[in-house]
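Appendix B. Chain record.
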Amino acid sequence: MMHTISQPINQRISPADLEEFCVQAMVKSGLRDADARITADVLVTTDTWGVHTHGTKQLRPLLKNIRQGRLNAQAEPEITGQGSSWAIVDGHICMPPATSAMAMKLAIHKARETGVAYVGVKHSGHFGAAGYYAVMAAQEGMIGLAMCNVDPGVTVPGAKGRVLGTNPIAFAVPAGKEKPVFLDIATSAVAASKLYAAQALGKPIPENWLVDDDGLPTTDPTGYPHHGALFPMAGHKGYGLALLVEVLTGVLTGASMTSQVVSWIKDIPDQCNQGHAFIAIDVGSIIGYEEFARRMEWVIRFIKESPKAKGSSRIYLPGEMEWERREDALAHGIPLPQDVAANLVGVAEDIGMGLELLSKPARAR
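Structure tokens predicted for this chain:
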């Protein structure tokens, strides 16, 4: 049932209010409160980092997956095999961020006992930003890695079609008195959103973004996504990294692999069965946390105090811009882009909710 929403959304939204809106929407859609809350935290935290492509903009398609039966709102993830430093989790197609948070918590727990732990996930879907789960480990004093496989959209050297997914990978490192250093990237040369932006503006793209149906570089983005494929990041280097992600998330877990993975965003009935992988390294058990933090702080100072290029006033660490955006968002509210606000209005229309929480003045968390 469609509902017309006339109430405006504020330009800056309190993270707490946005989180509560997401929780209410998910509970109304059948999720357990605990799963809704961790999923809301994943999405809203991502928005506070300024990574709006993977924040609350994803809520509407995730809820659509539930209505279509591609996700099961009441399912629970299950450990189907484990050892002292590893585990495999069957997500049973429940809300993917909730499964992923559970899996990283399990990796952290096992790493405390053994030093290093791997947890793989099968029968899952879109888990949002990989960086969230890597940071979970860093906040516990561990190095964290998180990754997933995706339906094919990227070519590989020598091929003319789509072979691997964008297969994102993230790492996060605790840094003593500093915020965790973290990086979250796709293994494609560019995000598909940049192709769509070029299409909308009628502009050509650089030659190293896209290949045509013959596998040749093209500057014309108009046929994508029905034609062509993305280049891998840095050529054979991105290809190799994407393949590593495929092995750790698909081959090793029992999840779907390469062309077996179907898109979570398309309007089709098939469950996508993506695989995820989470790794935690307990630095304290290897070198001692205080010693690690001291050495990490030294590396950070070395990088930030390095001679700067002409015209440069600052050297940023991976993740530093995101942490600064988060501090601003917590203090003054999240500045939601128009497309994100439109998606939240769509959520309200889809399930018959009001937008009162998103129409309140932003408040500090």
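Further analysis of this model is presented in Appendix C.
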